[in-house]
Amino acid sequence: MTASFRALVVDQTGADAEVTAHVGTLTQDQLPQGDILIRVSYSSVNYKDGLASKANGGIVKSYPFVPGIDCSGTVVSSTDDQFREGQAVLVTGYGLGVSQYGGFSEYVRVPKEWVVPLPEGLSLRDAMIFGTAGFTAALSIHKLEQHGMRPEAGPVLVTGATGGVGSTAIAMLTHRGYEVSASTGKTSSHSYLQSLGAQHLLTREDVYDGEKIRALDKQLWQAAVDPVGGHALAAVLSKITYGGAVAVSGLTGGTAVPTSVHPFILRGISLLGIDSVFCPTELRRTLWNRMATDLMPPQTELLVEQEIALDELPQALGKILQGQATGRTLVRL
């Protein structure tokens, strides 16, 4: 590999502990120890990456640091026979961009357990159009279908619909034949959500109007993909049909969920926790294979809001923190 390479570096400087982000130069010696060295082709922008770029974001423990919780690329060197030089691979979750230097870099080095061979049918670019957000959406759908969700059983709600998880979930569910209701605070994005396949467009207030949440409300959806959490999640639980389930994967709406036991003991509702970070290797590979087949929407390009270079990342990270992102931002390395 080259003696030096480019990466987005966040650092904390000054008496006020301000965090800044800039494109800097690293060497191979600065990468963490690991089994697999990868030349990165693509990464993507996720909410956790935005948090890693701000002071008190709760992600970065020491500076300087390279964010980026996912990447795709080709193997440069490997200490494990399972992976060969030149092989196309991807990495999401584990400690990438959290406990060690991440994917906003031309090279990464990671443990072999973190690496997934790129499935046939996916390009390196496709893999990061999905990225961590798409993997989270796929895991949510997979768990809900294991619970009994099926297209003929009624509509499925997706909250936070314009975000990475939400928009990808809509496209995947539509491709699977589900009737999708999409909730968003961005009325200007309704045509975008319809292009992904959403059949019913809801405002945030249609899901939760800010008033007292009923223990049990009118039954509207057989299941929900929820990357929002908070009070909205409590409202959603009260509106799921008997025996249904909600897959929760995020907390942009807050961590407190003011619900009661009533949806669980009177309607048999299940709340499914979605952890895309430490998802077991076997399930992780199963899901990526599904994302290359039955969970692969015909027009993945619709999910892409923009494709950017490293130098454009600071602005994109600020945008996702401000809730202004729609769909996926692809990072070209």
Distinctive features:
28% strand, seven-stranded mixed beta sheet, 15 strands, alpha/beta, six-stranded parallel beta sheet
Folded structure, characterized:
There is one protein chain. The chain is an alpha/beta fold and about 325 residues long. The chain has helices spanning about 45-50, 125-145, 165-175, 190-195, 205, 230-235, 260-265, 280-290, 315-320; strands at about 5-15, 20-25, 35-45, 70-80, 90, 105-110, 115, 155-160, 180-185, 200-205, 220-225, 240-250, 270-275, 305-310, 330. Strands 3, 4, 5, 6, 7, 14 and 15 form a seven-stranded mixed β-sheet that branches. α2 (about 125-145) packs across α3 (about 165-175) and α2 (about 125-145) packs across α8 (about 280-290). The longest helix has 24 residues, at about 125-145. It starts with a strand and ends with a strand.
* Radius of gyration (Å): 20 Å
Backbone shape: globular
Number of helices in the DSSP assignment: 9
Element-by-element helix/strand order:
EEEHEEEEHEHEHEHEHEHEHEHE
DSSP E strands, number: 15
What number is the mean pLDDT? 94
Low-confidence stretches: none
As a percent range, the share of helical residues equals 25-40%
Tell me the strand percentage band: 25-35%
Largest sheet composition = 7 strands, mixed
How far the N terminus sits from the C terminus, by CA atoms, comes to 15 Å
Structural class: alpha/beta
